[in-house]
Design goal:
41% of the residues lie in helices and 17% in strands. By secondary structure, the protein is an alpha/beta fold. The radius of gyration is 17 Å and the shape is globular. Bound molecules: zinc ion (ZN).
Length: 253
């Protein structure tokens, strides 16, 4: 069954048909979804949803664009939320120098704090990194070593992907892999062993072809699996089977 390792079903774009959509996942061969928080406010929301849907789990953390709202009190509350039995990871956390919403120092500080929280609670991490390749690698090497984790929506070189794999991290691949102009990601998928790849939607964002530009959802992962299968010269079923096993190992499910 398909395992979506990174989704945002608390997003308002799902307000009109959330229940219907999530209840139809099983018939589309989607077995497990990890719903990931981005803002501090969404930490509670993703847990509430994971408690409602048996096939759904939650990741709790604050996205680099949103860390400006964090303080010690909120951080302590997040730590409490992370002990909920349906929470499987700290995420999404990281660095985003593309939007650059917060200063690099603020982003780095809370990235490191959240990595250390993951270590303290013995949880894997879900990492967001955009146009911050060097700083992310340095911080992961210093503070994320021996943690389990995934670099979600991987957008860097294949050399860097292989470096993460050597550190024991998984490479998160989503809808972008189906885009015609995504040569770099296709090269990365070719270079990285299938045992180090996990599938994700990042929905409602980044829908694959043939739905590019529209609202994404976990049933579209089949298009990503087919493209990865083509690149790797294996069957789509094999991609789904192996990436599900990888995701279970990552999130310890
Ligand atoms: Zn995300």
């Amino acid at each position: 069954m398909i395992f979506d390792t990174h989704a945002h079903y608390d997003d308002e774009q799902f307000d009109t048909d959330r229940d219907e959509l999530l209840n139809s996942m099983e018939e589309s061969c989607v077995g497990t979804i990890v719903n990931v928080s981005a803002t501090y406010e969404s930490c509670r929301r993703v847990i509430r949803m994971a408690e409602k849907y048996p096939m759904m789990y939650a990741a709790v953390g604050v996205h680099p664009d949103e860390v400006g709202s964090l303080d010690e009190e909120k951080f302590a509350h997040m730590k409490e939320l992370l002990t909920n039995e349906k929470v499987v990871a700290v995420g999404e956390i990281g660095l985003d120098y593309y939007w650059d919403n917060e200063s690099h120092d603020t982003q780095k500080k809370w990235f490191i704090r959240q990595l250390e929280l993951a270590r303290e609670l013995n949880l894997p991490v879900n990492i967001h990194s955009r146009e911050a390749a060097q700083d992310t690698m340095e911080i992961v090497k210093e503070h994320g070593r021996s943690l389990k984790g995934v670099i979600h929506c991987f957008s860097y070189s294949k050399e860097m992907a292989l470096e993460y794999v050597k550190l024991g991290y998984y490479i998160g691949v989503g809808g972008v892999v189906t885009f015609k102009n995504a040569k770099r990601l296709k090269d990365t998928v070719e270079a990285v062993p299938l045992t180090a790849v996990v599938l994700e939607t990042d929905c409602p964002y980044l829908a694959p072809e043939p739905y590019r530009g529209r609202r994404n959802n976990s049933t579209y992962i089949k298009y990503m699996a087919e493209e990865i299968a083509r690149i790797k010269g294996v069957t789509g079923e094999e991609v789904v089977r192996q990436t599900e096993a990888n995701a279970r190992s990552l999130y310890r499910l």
